Amino acid sequence: MKPVVSALNAWSCVIISAFAIIILSVLGSLYSSNNHAYTGSEGEPEDGPAVAASIYIAVMVYAGFFVFCGLQAYLHMRDSRGGAISLH
């Protein structure tokens, strides 16, 4: 199987996706707990768990990017070693 994206793009996507998953998970947990110190007031947003649900959907999208780009990076590493079977 051949990689679809370049090695630099694959590794960049892996790193950015990992940070996005961490940061958005923290934000989602803060919104789901209706933390008043974080949201700024008691009325904004009106439905914190709904905001958290949409943030968790974004986390799932970034998890998909993480898996896809990780597979692409693995294919580049395998290709640079000479393929699945290397005769040296």
Structure description:
InterPro entries: Ribonucl_Kappa (IPR056552). This is Genomic scaffold, ProqFM164S04. It holds the Pfam family V-ATPase_su_f. This protein is mainly alpha-helical and 88 residues long. It starts with 6 loop residues before the first helix and ends in an 8-residue tail after the last helix. The mean pLDDT is 86. It has one domain. It is 72% helix and 0% strand. The protein has three helices and no strands. The longest helix is centred in the C-terminal third of the chain and has 33 residues.
SSE order and pairing:
Layout (H helix, E strand, L loop, with lengths): L6 H26 L3 H4 L8 H33 L8
**Count of beta strands:** 0
Element-by-element helix/strand order? HHH
- The percent range for strand residues is under 5%
Low-confidence stretches: none
Please state the oligomeric state of the protein chains shown: single chain
Ends: how far apart? 21 Å
How many discrete domains? 1
What is the tally of helical segments?
3
* Secondary-structure-derived class: mainly alpha
**Overall pLDDT score:** 86
- Radius of gyration of CA atoms, rounded to a whole number: 19 Å
Identify the overall geometry.
rod-shaped
Q: What percentage of residues falls in helices of 4 or more residues?
A: over 70%
Q: For the report, how would you describe the main beta sheet? A: none
